[in-house]
Every structure is written in C-alpha cells, then in structure tokens.
Amino acid sequence: QVNDWNDSRHQRIRERQALERLHDEAVRGVGYLSGIVESFDRYGAAQETALAALSNGDWERVDPELMREGLVTLSFFPTLSPPRSAYDDLISSGVFGELTDTEVRTAVAAYHASLQHAMGQLEYVRIYNERLSDARIQSGGYRRVYDPASGRRLGHELDLSLLAADRAFMDASLSALNSQRMMQEIRRDALERSREMCESLGKAVGKPC
Question: What distance in Å separates the CA atoms of residue 156 and residue 63, rounded to the nearest whole number?
Fold first, then answer.
C-alpha cells in the first residue's frame, strides 16, 4: 500500500512537471505566432495596396517604400517554427501519453495538428508560386541589388511601369497574393489553437497564459 502511494505521488509530480514544461513552451509559442501573424497582417496590407496601385496605374500616389514592401514580401512563405522541444521530449519519453487531463491532451493535439496542416499547405504554396520568381526576372523591372544599409545587405530596385505592363508578372503576383491570404488564415488558426492550448495548460497549472 505504501508502494502504491509512493508510485501515485511520483506520477503526480511527474505530471505536474510535464504540464509546467508544456505551459512555459505554450506561452512562448503564443508570443511567436502572434508576432508572425502581426507581421503578415502588415505585409498583407502592403501587398494589397501595391497590387491595387499597379492594376489601377496610380502607384505614384503610394509611398515607394510601401510599394517595395508589398511587392517584395509576396514571395515570403516562411516555415512556422514555434518552440516544441518540451512537447517532442514528452512524446518520445511516453510521458505525454500518461497525462490524465484529457482537456489538456485534446488542446495540445489540436494545436500540433494545426501546425502539421500549416506545413503541408506551405509546401504546396511554395511550389505553386515558384513562377513568381521567374516572372520577376523576365519582367526586367525587378532587380536585386547590394544594399549596405540593409541587415541582409539585400535591396530591390523596381521599375513599376515595366511591372504594371507585364501580364505574366501581374498574374503571378495576384496568385501569390491569394496564397498569402490563404496562409494567413492558416496562421491565424494555428495562433488560435495555441491560445486555447495555453489557456488549458494555464488552468491545469494555475498560471496565466
């Protein structure tokens, strides 16, 4: 009986430690995904403005830096890589499967399913939008240049008249815009699942998310 009590106590301690680790990681994950979504909200607004200006022929009324940001970021499809080492460790050790809080397990599973879905869609949109790179090169109006003021030393020179008149470039850019909008919805879903997971874990360990 004493051994059973000790085993039960050890299990509770181990579960508490696992939940604490998952909660800490979830808090950081919410911060990471919030930053990604916020950045792509800004990029998305610039992309819409830039393509509307090119389509309407009134880009001279738009801030050149905003035009540049909108057109350059159309090809940004970064990998989502929120922290997950604690989760992976608990899965590989079998501890995650021993968690008794079904609400937590459900929320964690839903979050990681949303990340897996995002990565699958990301692979698709990257392949689908490869033609944007070709269209940029062939347009003659989109050049990468050395920029010592940039952290990555990379700048872009744009001839907006050439780009607006290039049907292949505009078609590829509009397709990329559609993909960006789709991916942002997927990012938002991952963020929402991360918040739900964090709140569930916070309730389990008595900490705010």
Answer: 15
Per DSSP, what are the bridge partners of residue 8? none
Give the integer Cα–Cα distance in Å for 190 and 26: 12
**C-alpha radius of gyration, the chain, whole number:** 23
Token code pair at residue 181: 């909008």
β-bridge mates for residue 143, sequence order: 157
Q: Whose structure tokens read 């699942």?
A: 193
CB 141 within 8 A of CB 160: yes
| Confidence bin at 196 (pLDDT 50/70/90) | very high
Reported as a single tens digit per residue, the pLDDT across 5-41 is 456 778 888 999 999 999 999 999 999 999 999 999 9
* Average pLDDT score over residue span 107-129: 96
Q: Could you tell me the two tokens for 200?
A: 């569930």
* Residue 2, pLDDT score: 47
- Cα angle, residue 122 at apex, residues 155 and 157 outer, rounded to 5°: 15
Contact 50, 176 (CB under 8 A): no
Please report which residue ranges of 57-101 form alpha helices under DSSP H. 64-72, 85-93
* DSSP single-letter state for residue 140: S
The pair of structure tokens assigned to 23 is: 């909660």
Question: Among 27, 80, 34, 83, which residue's Cα sits nearest to residue 199?
Answer: 27
